[in-house]
Amino acid sequence: MNAQIQRAVMACKISLSLLGLLWGWATGQGWLGLVAAVAIFCFSGLFILLGLLVLRRVNRGAPHLPTRALLGAWWREWSAFERVFSWQQPFATQRYPDYLPATCRERGVLLVHGFTCNRGLWNGWMKRLGEQSTPFVALTLEPAFGSIDAYAEQIEAGVQALLRLGGPPPVIVAHSMGGLAVRAWLRRYGDGPGGAPRLAHVMTLGSPHQGTLMARFSPARNARQMRIGNAWLAELARSEAPELRALFSCYFSYFDQVVCPVRTAVLTGAREIEVPHSGHMGLLDHPRAFADLQQWLAEKKP
Questions:
Q1: Which of 113, 130, 205, 294 is the most buried (most CB within 10 A)?
Q2: What's the Cα-to-Cα distance from 1 to each of 113, 221, 270, rounded to whole Å?
Q3: What is the per-residue pLDDT for 193?
Q4: What is the DSSP string of 214-277?
């Protein structure tokens, strides 16, 4: 469903740009039509830049964001956003199928996307994992705008697929809302038979563990569950055992324009890792997270 929505958005963007060009040609103001077309295509970049500028006020007490670093983060974030939402997710979501070799006994990886995304978000990660023969499953969570609790069954199916290979418990990597979906899965399915561990570690990249101000701007059910101070988040936190939180590494950035204020991306009791000068989508491209994943994959089977 997410891919269909994003293809429709791309079609609207292209249509509006063409209308702008046609309007300029019909009125004899071709330059103005060109400006309109470019503005439509650059709208996401302007929106991201506005978000980064607002962070200067939202993240009070945070380290100063130098203008040069902010502009660099903006360019990388806009590039990542356009690559993901204009190509990978609408048109290349199945480019890299799940890698589940029958004879592999290595530790696997479960990849969980966030709000308004699908498995195409992870194309770069899936390509690299496949090249190193690491088993992986990348989910597309459905329904796109339903309850986060509903995603627990899909995560469970992905974990079971990796455990059936016979290797050690998998590592889960989750972006944005995906981190909350993993916590909802742990609440429902966390205990394995006889208390056996079912996962090695959870890496969350820009996940709104304590909510985010940006969730106010969407009426979707899963967005409401990401609002700061809402009852669902409070109940999720009350249901968690401290030892489960120790399984998490929370990657956050002072340049994250989606999960803010910045400390909302940190789960109390978890490992905290700051990713410098990275926007929300840029967290996926920063080499630190993938390098850390390699270390967790190398952990010996208990």
A1: 205
A2: 14, 16, 33
A3: 52
A4: GGGG--SHHHHTTSTT-HHHHHHHHT--HHHHTTEEEEE-TT-SSS-SGGGG--TTSEEEE-TT
Structural domain count, the chain: 2
pTM of the model: 0.91
Distance (Å, whole) CA 204 – CA 187: 16
Q: Above 60 in pLDDT, residue 237?
A: yes
| Structural domain boundaries enclosing 119 | 109-297
Identify the residue whose tokens are 């489960």: 244
pLDDT digits (tens, 9 = 90+) for 126-171: 999 999 999 999 999 999 999 999 999 999 999 999 999 998 999 9
Residue 236 CA neighbour count, 13 Å, CB half: 25
- Residue 226 one-letter amino acid: M
Sheet holding 201-205, edge to edge: 136-138, 109-112, 171-175, 201-205, 248-252, 271-274
Average of per-residue pLDDT across 40-58: 81
Scored b (16 or more CB within 10 A) or e, 211-241 reads: bbbbbeeeebebbbbbbbeeebbeebeeebe
Q: Is residue 101, in this structure, part of any structural domain at all?
A: no
Q: Which of 123, 128, 115, 132 is nearest to 176 (CA)?
A: 115
C-alpha span between 52 and 155 (Å, rounded): 32
∠ CA 232-234-240, nearest 5°, is: 105
